[in-house]
Amino acid sequence: MLEQQRENGNATIYQYQLIRKFHIPRLLLLLYLFFPIPALLVGTLWFSWHALVYMLAALLLVLWIHFVVSHSVLLIRGPIYRKKWRLRFSGMWFGFLPDQHTGYSILQQVLQQTLWIGFVFIGIIIAWVPLPFTLALLFWHFWFMAPRLSVLLSMRGQRKDVMIKLNPQDVSYYIQ
């Protein structure tokens, strides 16, 4: 098929062949999106209304940590990778994530660095911040990383030279 496209002049270097597509069930998406509400209610009941402020501040701080770590890893890898990433707020994908097809190795490296550096940062500041704020930081870190880690876990046993596209309703794996 690719040879036919080349002969017709329709082929580009961006032709990818779909290997697998994982659909995100609508129920799972809704559960994921509404999960912060019960966490906020529990925090308010256990600690007081200050949990609302802590949750909001922790949300912004975790987004900033993820952005700085991801952006730094991409800067180290080269400017070509950074151009494909942006802040996204669609479906399950919140934060600084690839907007286009991206290589599995790049995605894996960025996600692993973000995961561990986020934990290290929270571990360092745990002595200076109140317990509700620490719990809010951990909650948002896990909440943001859960869909990203599910992508990495779903790749177990798959080829490592694939391109990944994060769509609001699915995750697609392509080979070049």
Helices and strands: which structural class? alpha+beta
Strand content is: 15-25%
How do the SSEs run, as a string of H and E? HEHHHHEEEHHEE
**Total domain units:** 1
Rg, nearest Å: 19 Å
Helix content class: 55-70%
Number of strands: 6
Globally, the shape reads globular
Major β-sheet annotation:
4 strands, antiparallel
Summarize model confidence as the mean pLDDT: 84
Distance between the termini: 13 Å
The DSSP helix count reads: 7
Name the strands of the widest sheet in spatial order: 1-6-5-4
Residue runs with pLDDT of under 50 for 5 or more positions: 1-12
Explain how this protein is built.
It is a single chain. The chain has 176 residues and is α+β, with helices and mostly antiparallel strands. The chain has one domain (20-175). The protein has seven helices and six strands. A four-stranded antiparallel β-sheet has the order 1-6-5-4. Strand 5 and strand 6 form a beta hairpin.
